[in-house]
Design goal:
single chain, alpha+beta, de novo design (two linked rop proteins), three-stranded antiparallel beta sheet, DNA repair, RecO, ARFGAP/RecO
Length: about 230
């Protein structure tokens, strides 16, 4: 039996052509998680959806679902899209690609949706704001899918630790600074060292969940930077 959803808060993760005049949407929604939708006729010259279905924009979507893919029945913009340019565009696609790779369709993640919606505008801020937003999103995404970092130990800011995936931080003079792990635990990445250590640890944790597969957004950004 078909299910109808009306005016659900959502962001588009990916959009690609479907058939002669339609679009296949991957959307992240507040109450229904990641969903696939066919927007019929959305590529037609006179379609009113052409200016609405934009990435990085808060939307209200309506759809009818009777199988794996739903049919879009309406779309409204809640606000203008977050304007990301240059490398910041890749930051946004990176967040989107993480959701596409690590979340199953129709598995609701309302807390993560709220985090995504709150942090996305930070990508358009200063370089530091954007970097912190990425780290916080990575951290909270891992926690929301059940693979959060274990940083509740009695960490000493003056010591160093390696991160054991089963036990959490283990004292090791060649590891991460204890102060950095505390900063990540408390989400206060105020200095360059803590942000660098957080990036290395979180990226390692995400690689484990991706099974070694590389994200396209990260690969394209590396090509852009020539690294």
């Amino acid at each position: 039996m078909a299910r109808t959803v009306q005016l659900e808060a959502a962001h588009l993760l990916a959009v690609r052509p479907y058939g002669d005049s339609s679009l296949l949407l991957e959307a992240f929604t507040a109450a229904h998680g990641r969903i696939g939708l066919i927007a019929r006729g959305a590529r037609a010259p006179r379609s009113r959806l052409r200016g609405v279905l934009q990435p990085f924009a808060p939307l209200l979507l309506s759809w009818r679902l009777s199988g794996e893919l739903g049919t879009l029945t309406g779309a409204e913009a809640q606000a203008p899209p977050v304007l990301l340019t240059g490398e910041r565009t890749f930051f946004g696609w990176y967040m989107n690609e993480l959701i596409l790779r690590l979340l199953q369709r129709h598995d609701a993640h309302p807390r993560l949706y709220a985090v995504y919606a709150a942090l996305l505008p930070e990508l358009a801020g200063s370089e530091t704001d954007a970097e912190i937003a990425l780290r916080l999103f990575e951290k909270r995404l891992l926690a929301d899918i059940g693979y959060g970092l274990h940083l509740d130990a009695d960490l000493d800011p003056a010591r160093h630790y390696r991160y054991d995936w089963e036990r959490g931080p283990v004292v090791d003079s060649q590891g991460y600074a204890g102060a950095s792990l505390i900063a990540l635990r408390d989400e206060r990445l105020d200095d360059e060292t803590s942000r660098r250590d957080a990036r290395h640890l979180l990226r390692a944790a995400i690689r484990r969940q991706l099974g070694g597969r590389e994200l396209q957004a990260a690969a394209l950004l590396r090509q852009l930077r020539g690294t």
